[in-house]
Amino acid sequence: MPHPDPVTAMTDPAESAGLPPLFQPEYLTFLLGGDVYALPIEGIREVVGSLPITDVPGMPPFLRGVMNVRGAVIPVLDLRARLGYETAPLTRRSCVLVHELRRDSGDVLVGVLVDAVQAVLSADECDVAAEVAEAGSVRAPLPPEYVERALMLGGVRTLLLDRALLLSVDDLKQRMLQ
Question: Which residues form the signal peptide (predicted)?
Answer without folding.
Answer: none
